[in-house]
Amino acid sequence: MPTAIIPSLLRKYTDGRERLEVRGKNVREVIADLKRQFPALIEHLIEDGDIKPSVAVSIDGEIAPAGLLERVRPDSEIHFLPALGGG
């Protein structure tokens, strides 16, 4: 089963849990499962039906260019990362 890694700033919405087992074959399905488990988390990941611009998704160490459609393997680690800004 894939594992979602939640950044420290969002763990208050997952009862303090960093690693969550999730179901899904792509990022959209993983997020739907996260919504089922922790409804309050989703508003911090999704905006207007897509991943928020302030969040980057990494699957197995690679940034997911296909967004919600990016495929997830059964043994994948999905990281939800706050996007870095600055100059």
Q: Which range best describes the helical content: under 10%, 10-25%, 25-40%, 40-55%, 55-70% or over 70%?
A: 10-25%
Q: What is the name of the CATH superfamily?
A: Beta-grasp domain
CATH architecture: Roll
Lateral strand order in the biggest sheet: 2-1-7-5-6
Radius of gyration: 12 Å
Unreliable residue stretches: none
The overall number of domains is 1
Q: What is the molecular shape?
A: globular
Q: What oligomeric state is this?
A: single chain
Q: CATH topology, which one?
A: Ubiquitin-like (UB roll)
Structural class: alpha+beta
N-to-C SSE string, H for helix and E for strand: EEHEEEEE
Sheet of most strands: 5 strands, mixed
Task: Give a short synopsis of this structure.
The chain is an alpha+beta fold and about 90 residues long. It is about 15% helix and about 25% strand.
